[in-house]
Write a structure and sequence with these properties.
Layout lengths: L6 E5 L5 H8 L2 H5 L9 H8 L7 E8 L5 E9 L1
Antiparallel strand pairs: 1-2, 2-3
Length: 78
């Protein structure tokens, strides 16, 4: 086993919006985002707060040494 943290893929929860927003604010993530035009914070919250019918939301998170979890990715599949 390597030194990499365990990656977990799970469904979206209602409390994920802050973690997703923090990820979206990362310049490296924003530069590689597939979503155009880029959302401002209010549009992001409105768009991703709830998935529409037929959309599956996957969240990728890692465990931190502190025991907390950090979102490192998300995918919305239609």
């Amino acid at each position: 086993m390597g030194d990499f943290p365990t990656l977990t893929i799970r469904g979206q929860r209602t409390d994920d919006i802050e973690g997703l927003l923090a990820l979206w604010d990362d310049e490296n993530v924003l530069n590689n985002a597939a979503e155009l035009p880029y959302f401002d914070e209010n549009a992001f919250r409105e768009h991703y707060a709830g998935a529409s019918d037929g959309t599956h939301v996957l969240i990728a998170e890692v465990g931190l040494p502190s025991g907390r979890k950090q979102i490192v990715g998300g995918a919305w599949l239609h």
